[in-house]
Amino acid sequence: CVRQVSHLFFLYRRNYYGGNWASFSFSGLLSWIKENQQTTDTNDECEDWRKLILENEEAISLSKKDKTIQNVEDFCFGDQDSAEDVEEAGALPKLPVFGASGAEGVAQESEKECPSVESALPEAESRGPEKATGTEPANAVEGNDTEITSGNESSHSLALGESTLELGKTEAAPSEISAQEPKQITYSQIVREGRRFNIDLVSKLLYSRGLLIDLLIKSNVSRYAEFKNATRILAFREGKVEQVPCSRADVFNSRQLTMVEKRMLMKFLTFCLDYEQHPDEYQDYENSTFAQFLRTRKLTPSLQHFILHSIAMVSETDCSVLEGLQATKKFLQCLGRYGNTPFLFPLYGQGEIPQCFCRMCAVFGGIYCLRHSVRCLVVDKESGRCKAIVDHFGQRISANYFIVEDSYLSESVCTNVCYRQISRAVLITDQSVLNTDSEQQVSILTVPPVDLGKPAVCVIELCSSTMTCMKDTYLVHLTCPSTKTAREDLEPVVQKLFSLNTEKETENEELEKPRVLWAVYFNMRDSSGVEKNSYDGLPSNVYICSGPDSALGNDCAVRQAETIFQEMFPTEEFCPPPPNPEDIIYDEDEIAPEESGVSNSPETKAESSAEESSSGGSTAVKKEDNEE
Question: Using alpha carbons only, what angle is made at residue 495 by residues 492 and 496, rounded to the nearest 5 degrees?
């Protein structure tokens, strides 16, 4: 899209990139919490923009407030030791301590001196074609805040075709670390080290042979990112957390399984790799669930649990046999490409991925405007096509195609839409859910449903070497499809795995479990399954993109992006390998102001600057080469 389109504009009403895919520093997250706990609608602008709508045009008003986040609750369980005089390392002012749902004080103070997220425009051109991995992300600012404190480090770079994918530094931890007691982390330390945190709104991992990894390599966007291999797959069974053997070597080195179980597991996994060649073994179970099918394979209960919840990672009640076999095969095919697990995690958080695409787009002329709200879509009554948008400056921006995040759509457009919800929790803890000789582990754990009819909960635990949390802490993400509020869905799982310092817990339980220092719960809209024809009255050249879905991987987002691109440009290749920026020769006619897609006539009251703005999501407007 970047190469074939002469002018590409991204308008964000928020002051950070990525929408609900973003990552925040700790102070930035507190500001985000405060913003989403406010219930009043913003109505700070007049309706003068309606005068710009001509007689043969009509306007489709857009939502003024992002309503994709609900039920935000935050709690501080750590030692609140006079944090009112503590400043975040870098430039934050005095921060008061807060308790349950008390982010407002901290957020107000931090907003006075700095924006909620320190996200500058991607410095793509300054990097040029050279390797940009390992650098500080836009929302972390100071480079000296991100060094890995280890004495023995190694770095790996994997060559993949004509591109490379960087694997992050791995810290060698002393063997006696498992015997040490966790350090006492106070709230003031979390505030002071707030810039070391990169906290994702959405929790995902990248399958090593998934669509996103293939796209990053093909488009050469991978040069802007660095990744760390997920080191272990965990299971929660009979009240205990244990490691799941995945590869052949892990299976035969495992002490959890008997020799008979090892043979059973290897036989079944071998069958899953080429199950299409043996349809007679599963076709009789087409009307059964995958869990029921596993019981017919003479597998022990522990093996059934491992396969269902930690390898296939599917629902016990809703997943068909074919879906379970496909999920198991996908897991196995991704093993060994970059490590002993199928998953990669981007250093500095999932929010780095959209920023990497921003950097590549900026190299080829993409224009990004933060804090730039859009009031309406302007539709031509005769053709039924959208011809322009009106922003909060009262400026008309004309284009041929418009891509709108669904959070911009008003209730009048979404009358027939039924959204799903995702329950999310983010915890800062003082130790891992499963301590080993190395404390630098990236773990994924699926907790089976507490009650029948409820979804399983996916838990991703990140260590400090992922650059998402401070030293001696862990960042834990919990995700599941919503049935109630996020806290009601996820708190029972949190109480099983962690200590909340409640009176009900005994001293022995508290010593065994990691301690939660801080937590936030929230519900996020999942619009990934909504078809475009479900929205009322949208023009044919307006395309809707959803926010994150509840799946572990990113395949849904990649497919959606490719589908939208192919509808706009059916003869073009999606995200082709880009040329080197220095090899591009720009035609002066292509960059002339009258061809820019922005109308500067008195009738449209255009303004030259899009840098100033007020008020969250993004809207992209595109003007194709040689049209009109």
Answer: 90
DSSP symbols for 225-268 = -EEEE--EEEEEETTEEEEPP-SHHHHHH-SSS-HHHHHHHHHH
Domain count, the chain: 2
Nearest to 547 by CA among 342, 354, 313: 354
What contacts 590, CB < 8 A, 6 or more positions away?
6, 625
How many CA within 13 A on the CB side of residue 506?
A: 3
The partner residues of 443 in beta bridges, in order of sequence, read 232, 461
Whether 322 and 378 map to the same domain: the answer is no
> One-letter amino acid identity for 111?
E
Q: Tell me the Ramachandran region of residue 116: left when phi exceeds 0, alpha when psi lies from -120 to 50, beta otherwise.
A: alpha
Beta bridge partners of 598: 397
pTM: 0.79
The per-residue pLDDT for range 539-587, each reduced to its tens digit, is 999 999 999 999 999 999 999 999 999 999 999 999 988 887 677 666 6
Beta pairing class for 374-380 and 57-61:
antiparallel
**237, 251: one domain:** no
Find the CATH number of the domain harbouring 232. 3.30.519.10
pLDDT tens profile 335-364: 988 988 999 999 999 999 999 998 888 888
What's the rounded Cα separation, in Å, for the pair 63 and 615?
Answer: 12
Distance CA 561, CA 566 (A): 9
CA–CA dist 200, 554 (Å, integer): 14
Sheet of 163-171, strands arranged across: 153-160, 163-171, 226-229, 343-346, 206-207
Distance CA 257, CA 262 (A): 6
- Tell me the one-letter amino acid at 114: C
The answer to whether 477 touches 426, Cβ cutoff 8 Å, is yes
- The closest of 256, 262, 229 to 340, measured between CA atoms, is 229
Range of 557's domain?
1-39+50-84+184-243+347-571
Count CA atoms within 13 Å of residue 599 on its CB side: 17
Answer yes or no: is 110 within a domain.
no
